[in-house]
Amino acid sequence: QLQLVESGGGLVQPGGSLRLSCTASGSTLALEHYFVGWFRQAPGKEREPVSCISSSGNEGSDGGIEYGDSVKGRFTISRDNTQNTVYLQMNSLKTEDTAVYYCAADPLIACRWYKESHFGGSWGQGTQVTVSS
Description:
By secondary structure, the protein is an all-beta fold. Helices cover 0% and strands 44% of the residues. It is built from no helices and eleven strands. The chain has strands at 3-7, 10-12, 18-25, 35-41, 48-53, 65-67, 75-80, 85-90, 99-106, 122-123, 127-131. The radius of gyration is 14 Å and the shape is globular. The relative contact order is 0.31.
């Protein structure tokens, strides 16, 4: 069973930055064999897809990289397979970004479909991001 742990959340002022990490353990397969997505959920709102990255981390035939419309140009997803870790760099943060952020991993569903499918057999417990002045 793949286990995921998110970290890096905290309190930041509008316009600030945070980098979230999603680190995997507990599986015979390394995280490099999974598509990994970031999702967030704010109180009273539905879960929102944020970003997704393919096994290689490159755009193209392996599923590529995807971003939600609300974070394009501000957030950047990346991965370091040697560390079993996927990152979400969040810049120019807005109060609307306040939420619990979760990562999820799926070995089969490509990032092209991560917003529309039952993505994620494994989920972390989330890390709180609060953007406030």
